Sequence to fold (496 residues):
Amino acid sequence: MARLQKGHKRMTLSGMKPHSLMNVRWGVAAAALAAGSMASAQTTSEPEDLLAGTQGVGTQEAASAASTGQAPEAAATPSTMDQAFPDMVSNPMVQGELTVDSIPLVQPWSVINTLALIDVIENIAAEGLDPVDYDLQALKTSVAAGPSEELDHLASKNFIWLVEDMRDGRTPMDAREQWFVADPDRDFLRTGDLLTKALEGGGITGTLQGLAPSHPDYALLKRVLAETPVEEADRRKLIRANMDRWRWLARDLGNKYLLTNVPEFQLRLTVNNRIISSYRTIVGKPGRTATPQLAETVEGIVFNPTWTVPQSIVKGEGLGQKVLNNPAWAKTKGYKVTKDAGGWIGVVQQPGPTNSLGRVKLEMPNRHAIFFHDTPSRHLFSNDMRALSHGCIRTERALELAITMAILGKGATKDEAIEIATSGEYTKVPINQKFPAYITYFTMASDIKGEMQTFDDVYGRDKPVLASLDQPRVKDRSTVIDDEVIVIENNPLVGG
Fold:
């Protein structure tokens, strides 16, 4: 077990109260099975399905799968890109006018390769992109005259545009409000490498198709787009906008990860391409407390956390003086107060049933000070509209999630995790296998039953993305994320 950072002596299992054990009777057996499957998966060439042969997982996804015969999130099929370019590695990229990593961006094009490129452009609307963005007629005219320098420049330019749009997304950065996800695909799938290998191997179509996001939701959106009549222009545009949002993320999200969709108020834990649990969430209120979109890493679990009350509440809202004046009330709330000679007051809420962070939080260091945590106000999860917090993400059944992650991340065994969780003592459990955590914003996506749904645009972030689809393609797009980082002192009391 990883070294724990803890407070005072922990309770033993024999000292647990019956109701404490009942609080964690949620399916630890499923987590233990998952942990065992993870260990097996590490010794085989193919990932192991954690749900295979498992009964009693108790998730809505499993119930849906049983009734429909389909998993809510199908395993992704290896793409042409995975098969054709297994040797691509990440290197720093400096894209100039003519070269990327010393690979020329203008290369010779045969008639056959050009015709393949033309075919891709003519059918690119299926990927939610617009053929008008690419020089289709000019390519047809140029290729009719046979190979030439003009054709080399024209075809190379349009291939590169398609790479950028399929790999990175068409939406310019200034239309991605509060989007702070650094997409690594530009380094792993380098433009110059793609151009060279596609031309050498005659794989124009496969190369470009292989850049599509591998997440099943992208394929589902693509199918829905094909089924939506052209007369439903607004719906088609919304589908295209959300397809593009998948391109803003890494093409491969990893073997295991957390993904929360803010407008849906849901969080999913996915392992080996299967959703093993889903949880309702409470997210930031619209405005400056809105939850930003991030790709961060969960590095550990804090059971029975303390909460250092920010000075905006201690001083600004008068909590410090209230605690000093009402020690009995402060004790019921778990507040401990300190006051120095200069009059500065500090308040820390101790672990316990009234702690504003609840029984657990996930350690996820980031410059936005955003993290996932429990809440004592669990009744709020029954609300339909759950944009209520100060930015951080309150998570339903957070203790279940935390114990599962501690087991999967090999930070603790099942018994150790339960003992720590029910001890009532502050304990930090580092995990050896980190979890990527994606905080996303999709207004059209599959719900926890695997069915395509439209969600309210709670922060109004669709408007600039939809507007960009009506504008000409932006050339030489910046990849620098320059949106304002809004760091708000976490106030888990907001909204309940």
